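Quick question, first post here. What does this chain look like in 3D?
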Amino acid sequence: MATTSWTRGSPAKEERDIVHLPTTTAYDRWAPVYDHDANPLQALDDLELTTLLPLFLDLIARKPHKLATKIVDLGCGTGRNTLKLLSLPSTHVVGLDASLKMLEIALQRCTLRLDSLSVGHRAEKVNFEVFDMMATAALPDCARNADTVLSTLVLEHIPLAVFFGTAAKLLVEGGYLLVTNMHAEMGARSQAGFVDPETGAKVRPKSFVYGIEEVLAQAGENGFHVVGEARERAVRDEDLPMLGWRAEKWIGVRCWFGVMFEKL
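> Answer (accepted):
Ran it through. Tokens below.
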């Protein structure tokens, strides 16, 4: 994993104008810098997924053999985690996102990655589709009957009933769902956003703060059962070389949680 340059005592955040935008509009603007703005929560998510994602994929491997496994990356963004799925043979990978600008980057990145992999060591099929679960309940055909759904740092922007209702419709019975999100401790003090390099303003999309218990309760109402236990993660001092100087103010604060579910 690439590390972010950090030195203790980096300058404090400057005061900036804050602009609130609809989520899709905000992410369209965020797309060009999304993978390069040293976001500590994204870095923490990547760090935790080094162990959680293999456990999740192992759940799939235990299922009765199928000719192909369909994995949907719900809210795939620029393909940060879609890339991690492309080396899985006998899979159909589907990336869905409401932001066309994010998807354009995901498609470009994933095409390059697929071209570097040999036949037999890569996904059999990859699709990217614009899909806004806040605007429509109609699922893209390529995403229906998924065996697994992966959704990282997306839940913050979606009402719980909409999110879990959508995930339930995507999955086959017995399918698995992996969700990661900003922890309520972090959400009480901050939310997703970025500094627009053109204006210098802080851009914020629509966000919700969710506690783990209410997330689990809504998941249960939509027919999901927790697999294992929910994970919570605070930033630790030793994380800073990997997470970068922006993470220093979050030491001791629970910033991330992740949960695996099975659709009953």
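Residues 1-13 have pLDDT under 50 and may be disordered.
The beta strands are 18-20, 69-74, 91-97, 125-130, 146-152, 171-182, 194-195, 202-204, 224-234, 254-263.
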